[in-house]
Amino acid sequence: MTTELIDPTLYESLFPEGISRYAIGGLFVGLGVAVIYLGTGITAGASTFLESTLTYVSDRSRFQRYRASRDWRVVFTLGIVLGAAVYAVIWQGEAWTTDVQPWRLLLGGILVGIGTRVGKGCTSGHGVCGVGSASKTSIVGVVTFLAVAIGTAQLIQALGVTP
Question: Would the pTM of this model clear 0.90, i.e. be above it?
Answer without folding.
Answer: no
